[in-house]
Amino acid sequence: MSIETVLTEARTLAAAGQLPAAVAMLQTALPRYPEHAGIALLFADLLQADGQLQAAVAAYRVALRIGPESADGWFGAGCAHLALNASGVAAACFGRAVALMPRSGPAHYNLGKSLFNLGRIESAVSSFARAEPLDSQVTDMAQASIACIIPGDPRADHLTVLQARRRWAGNTALGLVPLNACPVPSTQRKLRVGYLSAFFGAANWMKPVFALINRHDRTIFEIYMLSDGEPPSAASGYRDHDLDYICDLRGVTNERAAGIIADLGIDVLVDLNGYSFQQRLGLLMHRPAPHIVGWFNMFATTGVAAVDWLVGDGHVIRRDEEPFYVERIHRLPGTYLAFEILYDVPDVAPPPCLAAGQITFGTLGSHYKLTDAVVSAWARILLAAPQTKLFIKNATLEDESVRNDLLQRFHQLGVSERRMTLEGRSSHFAFLDAYRHIDIALDTFPYNGGTTTTEALWQGVPMLTFDGDRWASRTSASLLLAAGLRDWVLPDLAGYVDRAIALANDVRTPAMLLALRNDMRARLRSSAACDADDLCHAMEDFYRTIARDSPKIHTVGGMAIESGLDS
Predict the structure, then answer these.
(1) Which residues contact 171 (CB under 8 A, 6 or more apart)?
(2) What does the radius of gyration of the chain's CA atoms come to, in whole angstroms?
(3) Which pLDDT belongs to residue 175?
(4) pTM of the predicted model, to two decimals?
(5) Residue 344 and residue 451: Cα distance in Å, rounded?
């Protein structure tokens, strides 16, 4: 059988959905044509299509040895590594692919995805921007990716964020017909509040949400949980109420979900997802409820004109920033992220510096928050306090290429890998227990911790942060100020770095940290950071206030849209 015949028949089998047969055919042909680049590459591609990712990676290695200038080979290898969460290798592969075919939209787009996973946010945004005009197949995805991650780009100001999100939202809304659901006067029945989330079942995600939901007055409110994931449970912090409604929306289209919500007669729909479950923002554009509110997982404007309100607090959203929001802003007293812990957690451990004789800084935050600016600041701290160490743990670090990439970034700034400990995924309980290895948590920026900050504090570990230039850069400050930890909130990045260095070099720090840990949970329980009763009362008052007002009619498709209360 000739080479052309082998390739044609294998492609025919694959096109007919017979991938195993196509793979087996090429496997038989490979020993006869061991140096044929086309057969080697097709074999790797079909292995990947068949879900045999590790085998595909090995096959791409062979194909690229035979044809090292194959742009398709580098692209395919990058896709296989990306699917295996090996973002460091994936970025290198896509980088080679882009160099060989600079007009490839998919190559630039996947390079952006890999760079984002590594924390190289600025480069990721640039890659998505290059991909967008090159190929219509990735235009929408690139635009959506930029809209999602833009608040984490240090270069992006408020106007840039607003423009990116309005552009994506406007294009997504084209052709949609809003339902403009009509309110039922609240005097006729209880006020119906629907909470929309893909994360109700996550044990480490919904602390402020369940602090609120568990306290709602069921004599006044009917509570609906509209779930795109595992349902709420005791393990995730939910205290079951017989009168509550749980609606499983998994796999339901936005249009159908909007109809379901409208049929339920929801008065106030509260989106808890934001851009963490971006595909459901399209549901809001259908206007399935008279009043739509964004809360909890919001760090900038959504850009979605159908969202009437965003709920924050006086610290995270400054009044002079309101022109950069399409929504109206409601500010809660204290922190908008008041929380309580409703699942098993480890006991607070003593600060490790007592035994080690040195300060260990650290973070358990998401890897994509480890921007170049963060790495640079932390390197300055470590170099100015040479006796210190750095502990970083997150699921992305499970992969060796990601670990190597991060170590290399620090090495380029003069920090030896001997001063760093990197750990990957673990169970949530073990994950929290890792705070026993950290004396002082360092906040990330411009995308702060939220869940990370609350969990660090609850495990007795103070978080050092600074007052940033956007909502995403002030969430930790909101929590720390509410907890009475004002000394841990610095006015700017320079103060943050200087404070970390001073703490590391101060012989009094270990005793201070021990006293702080011993008192931390009691301090939190008595502070605004854990005042869930006040959070509930304030939110219920807000819901009642907006429900009394007639909503304005919304349109879509790029028109300017007013929303919220009548002036």
Answers:
(1) 140, 143
(2) 26
(3) 84
(4) 0.93
(5) 16
> Cα separation of 269 and 288, whole Å?
8
Site of tokens 């970390």: 500
Using DSSP's 3-state secondary structure scheme, residue 422 falls into strand
Among residues 361, 351, 356, 337, the alpha carbon closest in space to that of 460 is found at 351
What class does CATH assign to 353-530? alpha beta
Q: What percent of the chain has pLDDT over 90?
A: 91
pLDDT at 349 over 60: yes
d(CA 229, CA 249): 8
Element (H, E) at 393: strand 389-393
Say which amino acid occupies 347: D
Which helix or strand (DSSP H or E) is residue 191 part of? strand 191-197
Task: Name residue, tokens 């984002």.
Answer: 116
The residue extents of the domains of the chain are: 3-149, 186-338+534-547, 353-530
Would you call 21 exposed, middle or buried from its count of C-beta atoms within 10 A (0-12, 13-18, 19+)?
Answer: middle
Q: What is the pLDDT of residue 551?
A: 66
DSSP letter for each residue of 489-552: EESSHHHHHHHHHHHHH-TTHHHHHHHHHHHHHHHHHTSGGG-HHHHHHHHHHHHHHHHTSPPP
Name the packing angle between helices 136-149 and 105-117 (round to 10°): 20
Spatial CB neighbours of 121, under 8 Å, sequence gap ≥ 6: 115, 149, 152, 153, 154, 368, 371
Return the closest-CA partner of residue 478 out of 539, 488, 440. Answer: 488
CB 326 within 8 A of CB 301: yes
| Same topology between domain 186-338+534-547 and domain 353-530 | yes
154 closest CA partner among 392, 369, 396:
369
What is the CATH T-level fold of the domain 186-338+534-547, as seen in this structure? Rossmann fold (3.40.50)
Q: Does the pLDDT at position 383 exceed 90?
A: yes
Name the CATH architecture for the domain at 3-149. Answer: Alpha Horseshoe (1.25)
Round to whole Å and give the CA distance between 533 and 515: 28
What pLDDT, in 10s, does the model give residues 299-336? 999 999 999 999 999 999 999 999 999 999 999 999 99
